[in-house]
Write a structure and sequence with these properties.
Number of domains: 2
Oligomer: single chain
Shape: globular
CATH superfamily of the largest domain: Flavodoxin domain
Order of helices and strands: EHEHEEHEEHEHHHEHHEH
Strand order of the largest sheet: 2-1-4-6-7
């Protein structure tokens, strides 16, 4: 089994680790032009849902991907709610000739600090039943079960209404405020798009997924948003910083 994943703060990587198999970073595959993936057993994609849609890096990969397997699945991580996001992913993938045998999602910590405080998100973790839900997903995949997403008319309509306000342009990085940077280069190493150079005249190159990996993984807590609800930062407790760097390393 091959697991293709995209991670910013470790949630999707943790899910990929729990599923098992050979893990391949989507940003690294895309950067190297290796978008053809083959595995007789299964190929899975694991990625976060941002604002009822998906990171541009994931969509770029899907547009170029050639997935060859008898069983293809997709798992999306999300925070508060995903509404009709899975149906949107299924529809988007089909445009690129990709059909999923199984597609599901799992609610984890929402790291979108312009809307949520991390303290409240972490406090709500026990009620989400993450491990139980993951056990079910892993069992389904091992049994090669099929599962198609479903969304009500209201969910699809709500997604269509809310998505524009939560979809950000590539120059959203112009909102970042830098305070007390020690030039450790961690932000450069964890950015999935190679969008950061702390030694350049302009640190950000306006090619941003708004995954906030640079914000949450900065050891000095030096990167901020003017409208953030919390100065606390998050990385999945089961994932180490070096794993995020290996997933997205641009150096």
């Amino acid at each position: 089994m091959k697991l293709l994943y995209y991670t910013a703060t470790g949630n999707s990587l943790y899910v990929a680790k729990r599923i098992g198999g050979e893990r391949l970073s989507i940003p690294n595959l895309l950067r190297r032009g290796k978008c053809t993936v083959e595995d007789d057993d299964a190929i899975g994609l694991v990625f976060p849902c941002y604002g009822y849609t998906f990171p541009r890096t994931v969509l770029d990969f899907l547009s170029a991907a050639d997935l060859k397997s008898n069983y293809v699945f997709a798992i999306s991580t999300y925070g508060a709610k995903d509404l009709a996001a899975l149906s949107l992913m299924e529809k988007t993938a089909s445009k690129f000739g990709i059909s999923f045998d199984y597609i599901n999602s799992i609610s984890m910590v929402d790291n979108f600090i312009p809307r949520y405080s991390l303290e409240s998100q972490i406090e709500a973790l026990p009620s989400k039943g993450i491990e139980e839900h993951l056990d079910k997903i892993v069992a389904d995949i091992k049994a090669k079960k099929r599962h198609a997403p479903s969304a009500s008319f209201i969910e699809k309509r709500s997604t269509g209404k809310e998505q524009p306000s939560l979809t950000f342009p590539p120059d959203v990085d112009s909102r970042y405020e830098i305070r007390g940077c020690v030039k450790c280069r961690t932000c450069m190493k964890v950015c999935p798009r190679g969008n950061i150079d702390i030694f350049a005249e302009e640190r950000y190159f306006h090619n941003c997924d708004f995954c906030m990996s640079c914000i949450h993984n900065c050891p000095s807590n030096a990167i901020h948003l003017p409208d953030e609800k919390s100065t606390a930062r998050f990385r999945n407790e089961h994932v180490q910083l070096r794993e995020i760097i290996e997933s997205n390393n641009q150096l």
